[in-house]
């Protein structure tokens, strides 16, 4: 009896989450007029790819895509290296000073200088209007250091490292040849967390960048989805107003899909890893 | 002391590479987290960029007084607290309930499917999320208003009517985050000793009783830790989503401290005033965190530190 109620409740939750997702996909390949009249409820109706055509014809979308790709690749590489550099020493019991350094790092989770002092610092370092302002100030996350350190401590037997050391491996060799090859699941999780973070971030770009040709995708998305500056996208102005507005609507659905495409494509492959990663983090939570 | 020092020198010689590895990380946190803390002093100064942080003149608590006496103060505090508490009341228990429900599902395919679907919105960016909210709630084209009209109701301009702002913020957050937040509870549930359930079944406990008497107490420590962390965030209500959802018409219920700090400080270049507002915010947060942690320690014997 209880179980039936549980299945019904979960089915309702499932529908509530799933419906908007399906709707967006269907709307992106339906005729915009049909969609905005409310005649499309679930499956695509009056197939049309006008939204995608307009998105792909837009130069700034491509600029944003290329910039975001660059920021994500460089940013994630730096994140990963820094996280390993922090997590490995802190995972070693024979690393004198680990408690002090852990406290020094964790404290920053609870108190910070705030937006203005951070902004002034980045400005003084001369990083305003460069890609480094989007990458360096977030070079590593405390939370991810803790997750990775916990993985090193719990999933890699200490004995392996000790015997490697007895066999004459230096610390670096142990890390490179033994610890890292055994840590592929957590490395995959870190790549996922950090790269999704870079892909989706817009705040740093909003406050630190001035030139449009450096803008990441999210800033252009904001203009199209939220500030509705679709005028220059929808093409020539001699179109009738009605058609003009419909194209503006079509672009919105298509761009949501295009912007999330990399994550959508990777999602099924990475799902088992990120759940594992969250679990590892949760154990010591 | 010398003996200790010698011991440290010995481990340092053995593990010098580890110290080398962690040096950039220590430097990073020093520069990007501790140096801005030094910059907090501009909240008590009249910051002039040409003079720099150190040489600008002290003016004491003037910026704080100006903030406390400003027309916006009450509105900012009420909105910040209102949105946070609303979010805490709705957004905190739902992932917990979802995890408890999912934990009972025997069918692995169904369970996996629900999880896959509910985790997915977590990966949407804030910009896309707010874009979707605007699309779905649009008075002319949005599906929600089509539904309202279909059932004979009056179309609602959700985004420009202030009284809707907080609910939209909180419930869209639940939609996006409940699956992801439930993972941590599922992990905790997986750690509960199955023999407890066996014994309870033998004693004739119903499923609901077992959820209530075994599962819930079993994950209480996790719940309390997350609750502490959430309460510690009460004043830190996120900038990104609110700023994107804001417009001139809903501003009276959408302006919160973080958006105010941004518009005054970065856009308006009132660095000192804005830093003072930000500092007030961080301090209230820190006090709340310490307070809740202490209460949790007393009541539940669970705490962050």
TrEMBL record, chain B:
GO biological process terms, semicolon-separated: transmembrane transport
InterPro entries noted in UniProt: MetI-like (IPR000515), MetI-like_sf (IPR035906), UgpAE/MalFG_permease (IPR050809)
Mode of membrane association: Multi-pass membrane protein
Bilayer-crossing regions: 16-35, 76-102, 123-148, 168-193, 214-239, 271-292
Limits of the ABC transmembrane type-1 domain: 77-292
Primary site of residence: membrane
GO cellular component terms given for this protein: plasma membrane
Keywords: Cell membrane, Membrane, Transmembrane, Transmembrane helix, Transport
Alphabetized PROSITE patterns for the sequence: ABC_TM1
Compartments, record wording: Cell membrane
Family according to the record: Belongs to the binding-protein-dependent transport system permease family.
Matches recorded under PANTHER family: BLL4140 PROTEIN
This protein's name: Sugar ABC transporter permease
């Amino acid at each position: 009896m209880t179980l039936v109620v549980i299945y019904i409740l979960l089915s309702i939750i499932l529908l509530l989450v799933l419906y908007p997702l399906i709707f967006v996909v269907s709307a992106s390949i339906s005729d915009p007029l049909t969609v905005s009249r409310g005649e499309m409820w679930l499956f695509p109706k009056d197939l049309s790819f006008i939204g995608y055509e307009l998105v792909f014809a837009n130069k700034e979308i491509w600029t944003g895509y290329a910039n975001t790709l660059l920021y994500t690749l460089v940013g994630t590489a730096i994140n990963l290296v820094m996280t390993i550099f922090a997590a490995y020493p802190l995972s070693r019991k024979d690393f004198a000073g680990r408690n002090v350094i852990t406290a020094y790092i964790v404290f920053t989770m609870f108190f910070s200088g705030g937006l203005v002092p951070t902004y002034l610092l980045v400005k003084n370092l001369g990083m305003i209007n460069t890609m480094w302002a989007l990458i360096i100030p977030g070079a590593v996350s405390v939370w991810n250091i803790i997750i990775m350190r916990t993985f090193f401590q719990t999933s890699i037997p200490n004995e392996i490292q000790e015997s490697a050391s007895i066999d004459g491996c230096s610390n670096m060799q142990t890390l490179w040849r033994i610890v890292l090859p055994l840590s592929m699941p957590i490395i995959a999780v870190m790549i996922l967390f950090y790269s999704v973070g870079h892909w989706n971030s817009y705040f740093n770009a909003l406050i630190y960048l001035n030139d449009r040709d450096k803008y990441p995708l999210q800033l252009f998305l904001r203009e199209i989805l939220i500030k509705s500056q679709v005028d220059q996208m929808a093409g020539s102005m001699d179109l009738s107003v009605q058609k003009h507005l419909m194209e503006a609507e079509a672009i919105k659905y298509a761009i949501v899909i295009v912007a999330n495409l990399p994550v959508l494509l990777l999602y099924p492959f990475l799902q088992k890893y990120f759940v594992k990663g969250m679990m590892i983090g949760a154990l010591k939570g | 002391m010398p003996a200790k020092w010698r011991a440290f020198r010995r481990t340092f010689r053995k593990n010098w590479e580890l110290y080398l590895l962690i040096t950039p990380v220590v430097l990073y946190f020093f520069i990007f987290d501790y140096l801005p803390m030094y910059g907090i002093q501009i909240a008590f100064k009249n910051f002039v960029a040409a003079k720099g942080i150190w040489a600008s003149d002290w003016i004491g608590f003037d910026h704080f007084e100006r903030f406390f006496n400003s027309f916006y103060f009450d509105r900012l505090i009420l909105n910040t607290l209102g949105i946070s508490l609303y979010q805490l009341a709705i957004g905190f228990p739902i992932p917990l309930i979802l995890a408890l429900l999912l934990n009972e599902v025997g069918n692995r395919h169904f369970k996996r499917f629900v999880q896959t679907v509910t985790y997915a919105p977590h990966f949407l960016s804030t910009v896309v999320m707010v874009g979707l909210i605007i699309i779905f709630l649009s008075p002319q084209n949005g599906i929600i208003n089509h539904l309202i009209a279909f059932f004979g109701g009056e179309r609602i301009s959700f985004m420009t009517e202030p009284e809707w702002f907080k609910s939209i913020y909180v419930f869209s957050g639940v939609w996006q985050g409940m699956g992801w937040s439930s993972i941590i509870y599922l992990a905790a549930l997986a750690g509960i000793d199955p023999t407890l359930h066996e014994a309870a079944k033998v004693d004739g406990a119903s499923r609901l009783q077992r959820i209530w008497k075994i599962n819930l107490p079993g994950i209480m420590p996790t719940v309390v830790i997350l609750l502490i962390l959430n309460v510690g965030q009460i004043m830190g209500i996120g900038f990104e989503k609110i700023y994107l959802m804001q417009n001139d018409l809903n501003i009276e219920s959408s302006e919160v401290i973080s958006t105010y700090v941004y518009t005054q400080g970065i856009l308006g270049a009132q660095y000192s005033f804005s830093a003072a507002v930000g500092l007030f915010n961080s301090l209230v947060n820190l006090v709340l965190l310490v307070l809740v942690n202490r209460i949790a320690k007393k009541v539940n014997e669970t705490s962050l530190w």
